[in-house]
Amino acid sequence: MNTENTFLWGAAASSHQVEGNNTLNDWWDWESRGKVKEPSGIACDHYNRFGQDFKIAHSLGHTAHRFSLEWSRLEPEEGRWSAFEWAHYKEVVRTLRALKIEPIVTLNHFTLPLWFYKNGGWTDRRSILYFARFAKKAVDVLGEDVTYWLTLNEPFVYAFMAYIKGVWPPGESSCAKAFMVIENQIQAHASAYKDMHEAARKVSLNGIKVGAALSVSPFFPCREESPGDRLAVFLRNNLYNHMFIRSALNGIILFPGFHIRALRSRRAADFIGLNYYSYENIRYKGLGGYDMFGEPCYLGHHEKANEEKNSLGWRVYPEGVYLLLKDFAGYGLPIIITENGICTNDDNQRSIFIKDHLSWVFKARSAGIPAAGYLYWSLLDNFEWADGYSPRFGLIETDYTTLTRTVRPSGRIMADYIADYMKAALF
Ligand code: FCB
């Protein structure tokens, strides 16, 4: 990836949040058991309307688009591929290519095929093989049209929401299982990385680039002077922000609470994807089990009385993206901001959010940090998991009754801002 003069930018989305009617996955099952505010249903009907949506992205100047494959469509039963659905995603990537938009493909963005889920999901060791097999197939079928791949989306968020907080399927509350899920996901990533590169040698001329999309936050001690808070911040930063990528690159999982395990490959990332929304203040909770990672507190270091928040209450902190880019630059790999965005009913707030965050991303680039792209979350308003349809993240407004799309001014402002920056920086 030549980060000197390439800057990929555009927006991101995931299958279950926009496609509609993903009836064969764990989320559909969870929704039909009444576990969410509202079910995903037809969502944005992006499955049928992707062509129209990508034309809008093109009209906004996007040069990249991140989306995910819906595994439950592609492998509806264990070991059985759906040729029809593979052809669908082939059409999706070809449509992007025809518009000169670089596809950035996530293999798994949270949702699991029901058969996989029923076999124990990510807590079962077989998950590693199942995932690597799926990843290889994806490169066999789509590899000639796709360069950038993300294996998993936010492994730690998934493990936390599904196995600690219990608000996502399977709704468990077990620290031991959450750690197992993370271990298996790291193994699955490393195996997939190896198998994908092998498969790519057969189908793609210029090779592929494989990374993962990690949810990252700067952490600050609640009380600057407290050694306990500082220890919790240190441990949390190492676990949440760095453990996945460090293990993938070192070829070994080495972290308290996890088994020491060698992975099937080392140097298992060609670039790093960072999803950034907000920061957290952390305070000491104890030394045993999960307590050692501390707990969020709402006072401290960065708290201001009227600090800006999004409509879900997440605090806005643009400089955080710079701190994270600086922190991750140490790995010596190109970094793409694979998600950054705001849910708000005030589009002006969105425009300012984008400008502020982008200016920190560009500042990082000017300082020599290999920030190679920025993908706003999300292209269009969509199904926000347990929070349903009320959070509005889109550059494009979705009318959920008529499914009409309307471009918000922030969509154009983002394009203008990037164009100005590129001119000034002589890309
Ligand atoms: C991220 C998820 C994405 C979306 C945004 C708001 O954690 O990856 O699917 O829900 O948050």
What is the strand arrangement across the widest sheet? 1-2-3-4-5-9-12-13
Helix and strand sequence: EHHHEHHEHHEHHEEHEEEEEHEHEEEH
Number of helices: 13
The CATH topology label is TIM Barrel
- What is the average of the pLDDT values? 95
Helix content: 40-55%
Distance between the termini: 15 Å
Instruction: List the ions, cofactors and other small molecules found in this model.
Output: beta-D-fucopyranose
- Under the CATH scheme, the architecture is Alpha-Beta Barrel
Which class do the helix and strand fractions yield?
alpha/beta
Number of domains: 1
Radius of gyration: 20 Å
Spans of at least 5 consecutive residues whose pLDDT stays below 50 are: none
Beta-strand content bin = 15-25%
- Estimate the global geometry from the Cα principal axes: globular
- What's the CATH C level? Alpha Beta
Q: What does the main sheet amount to?
A: 8 strands, parallel, barrel
CATH superfamily: Glycosidases
**Secondary structure: number of strands:** 15
Write up this protein.
- It is globular, with a radius of gyration of 20 Å.
- The chain has 427 residues and is an alpha/beta fold.
- The relative contact order is 0.13.
- Helix 8 runs antiparallel to helix 9, helix 11 packs parallel to helix 12 and helix 12 (347-366) runs parallel beside helix 13 (409-424).
- An 8-stranded parallel β-barrel has the order 1-2-3-4-5-9-12-13, surrounded by 7 helices. It has a 3-stranded mixed beta sheet with strand order 6-10-11, with helices on one face. It has a two-stranded antiparallel ribbon with strand order 7-8.
- Strand 14 (396-398) and strand 15 (405-407) form a beta hairpin.
- It is built from 13 helices and 15 strands.
- The protein has one domain: TIM Barrel.
